[in-house]
Write a structure and sequence with these properties.
By secondary structure, the protein is of the alpha+beta class. The chain is 26% helix and 31% strand. It folds into 2 domains: 11-137, Histidine kinase-like ATPase, C-terminal domain (Heat Shock Protein 90, 2-Layer Sandwich), CATH 3.30.565.10; 148-335, PPM-type phosphatase domain (Phosphatase 2c, domain 1). The protein has a 5-stranded antiparallel β-sheet with strand order 1-2-3-5-4, with helices on both faces.
């Protein structure tokens, strides 16, 4: 069995622009928490965290949105909350998480409660640039997830997203990533994306070229998708990759950003001879994949310190600032840790 980490299968995005949205976030979080079997006390803690995050968005933020999703690792399941906004931001997010500290004349207990009750918590904020906060709730101690996370959202007016991703390991230390974009949008695009995710998850151990060919065969019954697969090889200090279509991929190392070049094509329908290429990937580099619902005009240099945050925070920040509302969007971020 190939180990798989952080497979998100149940999610809802909620705009938080009025008091009623706070209750909707709390209800969505507790419903998912109950559904995945969190203990009663953890569901109660989750309700507090969800309420505090959503209340902060409503009271202090602009263009606030909340992702509530199930996260799975091996045989465990938890609930993750990701809050994004384009509000005034914070100069010192760490200090703002201390009980009693406030930048808005309030009691300042909200972020303190979030950090205290959550199984995991991380965030990023810049003055005048907004804030991204991510918190999760697990039934016990948080599992050690792989150093890669993804985030996706449907285009405006749709309930399901045609973008998807997968994360797995093969051998002792090789991390593999897959990001896909089902053609079009809506339920049929989502069907293609879910088929690509399943094919990647269940594929035998192989390199990116073989995995693309495997996914291509699995998508024949769908409308097809564009797909890229990346393998991080710490021993060789490289990433190997192969793809069909317009998934964007980059290796970011400090001020350097190397782009992955993949072939045109549609997995499931149009497959030229697949090529596997590689790029250098030193320790500490980030591997960032995204669909065409996210523009290429982001630059990590505009976000001092973001590269050291949890990959879900990096992914959510890029999604917030570089995605377009007229298309599904997904971002997948991995850290080369060793």
């Amino acid at each position: 069995m190939v180990p798989v980490s952080s497979v998100e299968t149940d999610q809802v995005w909620l705009q938080v622009n009025d008091a009623g949205a706070v209750g909707a976030v709390r209800r969505s979080a507790t419903s998912l928490g109950t559904a995945v079997g969190l203990p009663e006390q953890r569901v109660a803690d989750l309700a507090i965290v969800a309420t505090e995050l959503a209340s902060n968005l409503y009271k202090h933020a602009d263009d606030g949105a909340m992702l509530v999703q199930v996260v799975r690792h091996a045989d465990q399941a938890g609930v993750e909350l990701v809050a994004t906004d384009k509000g005034p931001g914070l100069a010192d997010l760490r200090r703002s998480g201390e009980d009693g500290h406030s930048t808005a004349g309030t009691l300042g207990i909200g972020l303190g409660a979030i950090t205290r009750l959550s199984s995991t918590y991380d965030g990023y904020s810049r003055p005048e640039r907004g804030t991204v906060l991510a918190a999760s709730m697990w039934p016990g101690p948080a599992p050690a997830l792989l150093p890669a996370r993804g985030i996706s959202r449907p285009m405006s007016g749709e309930d399901v997203t045609g973008d998807g991703y997968g994360i797995r390991t093969i051998g002792s230390d090789r991390l593999q990533l897959m990001l896909c974009d089902g053609l079009g949008h809506g339920p049929l695009a989502a069907l293609a994306a879910r088929a690509a995710e399943a094919a990647f998850r269940d594929a035998p151990e192989a390199g990116p070229k073989i995995l693309i060919e495997h996914i291509h065969r699995a998508l024949h019954h769908t409308r097809g998708a564009v797909v890229t697969v990346v393998e991080v090889d710490p021993a060789a200090a490289t990433v190997r990759f192969a793809g069909l279509g317009n998934i964007s991929g980059s290796v970011v190392d400090g001020d350097s950003r190397r782009m992955m070049s993949v072939q045109p094509g549609i997995a499931g329908h149009q497959r030229p001879q697949v090529r596997e290429l590689e790029l250098p990937c030193p320790p500490g580099a980030l591997i960032i994949l995204h669909s065409d619902g996210v523009t290429d005009r982001w630059n990590l240099a505009d976000y001092p310190g973001l590269g050291s945050r949890d990959p879900i925070v990096v992914a959510a920040t890029i999604l917030r600032d570089a995605s377009v509302r007229r298309d599904d969007a997904a971002v997948l971020v991995a850290t080369r840790t060793a």
